[in-house]
Design brief:
This protein has seven helices and no strands. By secondary structure, the chain is an all-alpha fold. The model has no long low-confidence stretch (mean pLDDT about 80). It is globular.
Length: about 180
């Protein structure tokens, strides 16, 4: 473990950046599924930590602080994205009211069914973790507490489940072509 105690903010942040930037970006990409957004999130976390360096009670916990900041900022980006998407759908819905498309409802229903079928095909624990995460929007800790498993197991089940869903949904897309 590298100690950051006694370093000034510039030196400490530079060392952390060199050692952990890539992994933190990967973490954020997993959450927000966009490299550009993830890089901005991580950069903002480093800038915020630099500004608060003198307030850190234990500088050796700076990496933990960065990880938490990246996760929190990624969640915020996802919430913002949902709000923007919801607004865009609402605006599109107003447009649809003036020019209705009879097949849109059927298409939306069919898409939902495909996703639900793919979700139902997952092993029980993966299905539970994904449902708690994406339908109830619980944190990893809340999911771990709910299911009586470790946070690491939550991450593992979520990752495997999401990968399996992507594979199943990609196969369905190919079948439609």
């Amino acid at each position: 473990m590298t100690t950051h105690a006694g370093l000034d903010a510039d030196a400490a942040v530079e060392a952390l950046y060199a050692a952990h930037w890539r992994r933190l970006v990967r973490l954020s990409v997993l959450l927000v599924r966009d490299v550009g957004t993830a890089e901005e999130i991580v950069q903002d976390a480093f800038v915020a930590m630099h500004g608060r360096w003198s307030h850190l009670h234990d500088p050796d916990k700076a990496l933990a602080y960065l990880r938490q900041a990246v996760v929190n900022r990624s969640r915020s980006a996802l919430r913002h994205r949902r709000v923007v998407d919801r607004h865009a759908r609402r605006e599109a819905g107003l447009t649809l009211l003036t020019a209705p498309d009879a097949t849109q409802g059927a298409t939306d229903h069919a898409r939902r069914e495909v996703v639900l079928d793919a979700l139902r095909a997952l092993p029980r624990r993966q299905r539970e973790v994904l449902a708690l995460r994406y339908y109830l929007e619980l944190s990893e800790t809340e999911i771990a507490d709910t299911l009586g498993i470790s946070a690491g197991a939550v991450k593992s089940h979520a990752s495997r489940g999401a990968a399996a869903l992507r594979t199943q949904l990609a196969a369905h897309q190919e079948d439609l072509r």
